[in-house]
Amino acid sequence: MTPIDIALNRANTTAGRPKQPIVRVYDPDRAGPPEGVPLDPSEGQPILLKLHGDLHNPGSIVVTEEDYLVFIQKMSNPHEYPIHANIRARMNSWPILFIGYSLQDYNLRLLLRTLRWHLTVADFPLSFSVDPFPDDLIVSILQRGGKPMVSFVKENLWDFVPALYQACKGVEYQP
Predict the structure, then answer these.
(1) What is the three-state SS of the chain?
(2) CA atoms within 13 A on the CB side of 139
(3) Three-state helix/strand/coil letters over 1-36
(4) Is the pLDDT of residue 7 over 70?
(5) Tell me: the pLDDT tens digits for 24-83?
(6) Which residue of 45, 58, 77, 155 lies most exposed, with the fewest beta carbons within 10 A?
(7) How far apart (Å, rounded) are the C-alpha atoms in residues 87 and 1?
(8) Is the dihedral of CA 54, 112, 72, 45 positive or negative?
(9) Which residues contact 107 (CB under 8 A, 6 or more apart)?
(10) What are the Cα distances from residue 23, in Å, to 41, 45, 123?
(11) pLDDT at residue number 154
(12) Looking at the predicted structure, is the pLDDT value of residue 129 above 80?
């Protein structure tokens, strides 16, 4: 098991309500998106996308520059898109909350833009990034024009996540 899988299993166990995630792993050899993805995820059956692969399937790992170029090529081709249309539809209509990611990473910004390639900026749902010190240039790029793409929550991740947990669950987070 990878550290991420261990962390997900631990979170699933401590949540008190077991979850059966639908796991979809990027496959560079697949022509088209993964199959069998419901229109809406549920609390008991969330969707887990491993867009840059899974250690249990070494051929799926996106790690080299060539791997990433193939991934981006697939992201730009609607017939080979590695993300199911149901998930893309939700990502294009629902806000995304980036926790633990830096939007300084051009890979993440490129992924966000390719997911919403065919939308005008006016149609983008506002997304949020928790970052205590966002880069001024990135902020200006993602917030230029009439409607910003991303709003930055300038808070420490370790303060934000417990507060979000309490706001959503109505109880204090107990690590």
Answers:
(1) CCHHHHHHHHHHHHCCCCCCCEEEECCCCCCCCCCCCCCCCCCCCCEEEECCCECCEHHHCCCCHHHHHHHHHHHCCCCCCCCCHHHHHHHHHCCCEECCCCCCCHHHHHHHHHHCCCCCHHHCCCEEEECCCCCHHHHHHHCCCCCCCEEEECCCHHHHHHHHHHHHHCCCCCC
(2) 12
(3) CCHHHHHHHHHHHHCCCCCCCEEEECCCCCCCCCCC
(4) no
(5) 787 888 776 667 777 777 777 777 778 788 888 888 888 888 988 888 888 777 777 777
(6) 58
(7) 26
(8) positive
(9) 68
(10) 12, 10, 29
(11) 92
(12) yes
Burial of 81 (0-12, 13-18, 19+ CB in 10 A): middle
- Residue showing tokens 């149609």: 123
CA 143 to chain centre: 20
Residue 135 has pLDDT above 80, yes or no: yes
| Amino acid identity, position 161 | V
Q: Is the pLDDT of residue 1 over 60?
A: no
**Strand order across the 150-153 sheet:** 97-98, 127-130, 150-153
- In the numeric block, the tokens 């991934």 are attached to 71
Q: Which two tokens stand for residue 98?
A: 């980036």
